[in-house]
Amino acid sequence: QVQLVESGGGLVQAGGSLRLSCAASGSIFSINAITWFRQAPGEERGLVASIGWSTGNTYYADSVKGRFTISRENAENKVYLQMNSLKPEDTAIYYCTARTRRANNYSGQGTQVTVSS
User: What is the pLDDT of residue 70?
Assistant: First the structure.
């Protein structure tokens, strides 16, 4: 199994920045990719960005391209989401999810990001 803990959320004004962290533990060797999702009240969970654990290949939702950057620090078993030029519509609970090579998914408890206008 893989355990994930998110941190770094908070309240920020529009135009500001936050950096989220996702710390992984457990069966690290089995991770294929880490993905950040977000869910706003009354909305479905949506993909924000994803990174290959060993390849470093990245993918971004159109809504965050050019503003968010996903990166990994394998030595620390961490994935980061640098969020710049934040907008009120970025307000949501952000979750990191690990997908393993056996197609199992594990998710953390989430961290709240609130962007005020």
Answer: 98
